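Anyone up for a design puzzle?
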């Protein structure tokens, strides 16, 4: 099965904002970014389209011609818990746990949130289920963390340096399951 994972476009929040499950707005550049993503997808057609339920992913799916994707909570970005929708600089002043998280974000969770390992298990569960489906080509509109986990799952790159493979906003990662 061919899988196209597509990262949402830029978001309309101040730089340095921690957002994961927060349903933040898209940036003012959405129309231009979505047009570029549509162009990069070309004429490819999908048997099925999935999306994170968060607006920034669903909106790009709709802009690419898929207004009713199958929504799956496992495709949400990492849950950043108490840090959601706060500036990292502000978090550093009130929650010393963030310094430990910076040093070991692969294993430690945000306060009352998820770790990378939690996110990976969630995303891997989605792909384990997807493997059992009869689709030939699917699109998945999601988030940077989800695309990183998908790339590790698919063997595109090792977990040890997975964050160096972050797909840009509106970018596409393709692989075969």
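Challenge accepted. My sequence:
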């Amino acid at each position: 099965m061919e899988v196209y994972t597509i990262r949402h476009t830029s978001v309309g929040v101040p730089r340095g904002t921690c957002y994961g499950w927060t349903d933040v707005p898209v940036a003012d550049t959405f129309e231009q970014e979505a047009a570029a993503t549509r162009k990069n997808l070309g004429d490819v057609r999908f048997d099925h389209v999935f999306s994170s339920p968060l607006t920034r992913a669903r909106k790009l799916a709709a802009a690419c011609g898929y207004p009713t994707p199958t929504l799956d909570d496992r495709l949400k970005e990492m849950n950043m818990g108490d840090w959601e929708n706060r500036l990292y600089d502000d978090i550093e002043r009130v929650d010393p746990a963030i310094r430990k998280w910076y040093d070991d974000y692969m294993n430690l969770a945000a306060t009352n949130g998820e770790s990378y390992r939690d996110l990976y298990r969630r995303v891997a569960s989605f792909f384990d289920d997807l493997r059992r489906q009869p689709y030939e080509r699917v699109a998945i509109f999601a988030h940077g963390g989800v695309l990183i986990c998908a790339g590790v799952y698919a063997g595109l790159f090792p977990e040890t340096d997975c964050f160096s493979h972050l797909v840009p906003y509106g970018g596409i990662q393709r692989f075969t399951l």
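A detail worth pointing out: The radius of gyration is 16 Å.
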